[in-house]
Amino acid sequence: MDLATLWFWIVAFMFVGYFVLDGFDFGVGMSLPFLAKDDTDKRVLINTIGPVWDLNETWVIVAGAALFAAFPEWYASLFSGFYLALLLILLALIARGVSFEYRHQRPDSQWKNWFDWMIIVGSALPALLWGVAFANIVQGVPLDADHNFTGNLLTLLNPYGLLGGLTTLLLFFTHGVVFVSLKTDGEIRERARRLAVRAGIVTVVVAAGFLLWTGLAFGTTWFWILAAVAAVALIGSWFLNFRGLEGASFTLMAITIAAAVFALFAVLFPDVLPASNDPANSLTIENASSTPYTLTVMSWTALIFLPFILGYQAWTYWIFRKRVTRADIEAAPAH
């Protein structure tokens, strides 16, 4: 395996990390109107991700930086062509981050309600648009001979792209609700478990439709293998959640998302951004990658620092592994 191919899969791994980790953050944010009965419930939900949401979000920064350094042509075409969609994602993430920090600054309910909706929308919009973006990357977009995107935002909002967006929206929502059942106790835990059962049924149907469409249109052997892993893990997660085994259910949801993302990258390989109008204009691993020297330096840097990053993240989750209860929140200062 040459270095360009290796970095293609490293970028895939980084996006897997982002979607698995920030995915349940999005799901928790979207669950506020469905699980919270009062302000204390909202504080419980927010505190389940309070210590980790910003750490989870750094994965997309690392993925974007790796994409820029390893595949500058891919980065340039993607971030210029998908500019408006990515700008909306960025604004939504900013609004969500601001809401976590400012929601508790004033006691009146209207103030908190505004920031609650910023959390909800700031979670739902990226969950939808990331799926739209990746579905269009797999399907291909119109590119000219210089690899410039010649469409617009409406070009991306095609039926396949929207189904991809709906799939990630539902996967992240279910992932987040299962996480709530894992991290809370009492009545809110039971509400989360019941909601995950209902949402899981819809998620299974929509995700199956998206994977089937992808497989029939673009499928490879590795895609079908990874898609089968994702499908089995998703059904298993639903069943385990139904039985009240939220820890195992959450693990299988993470496997579902990881396998699905790897399946999309398997379909894409060896392209990185296919041209739907003319295959000759497509970006591939070969014509989009940096020089071997750059990739070598990046490889040594990743080898040295990536284990520390993974270790720190694992340590953080271990430290904040306990469940969040209403009693904990009521005993803490209001926020």
UniProtKB/TrEMBL annotation:
This is Cytochrome d ubiquinol oxidase subunit II. Its main location: membrane. NCBIfam families: cydB. It is found in: Cell membrane. It comes from Agromyces seonyuensis. The keyword Transport applies. The chain crosses the membrane at residues 6-32, 74-94, 114-139, 159-183, 195-216, 222-240, 247-269, 297-320. The keyword Repressor does not apply. GO terms for biological process: aerobic electron transport chain. It comes from the Bacteria. Keywords: Cell membrane, Electron transport, Heme, Iron, Membrane, Metal-binding, Transmembrane, Transmembrane helix, Transport. Belongs to the cytochrome ubiquinol oxidase subunit 2 family. InterPro entries: Cyt-d_oxidase_su2. GO terms for molecular function: electron transfer activity; metal ion binding; oxidoreductase activity, acting on diphenols and related substances as donors, oxygen as acceptor. It is a multi-pass membrane protein. GO terms for cellular component: cytochrome complex; plasma membrane. It holds the Pfam family Cyt_bd_oxida_II.
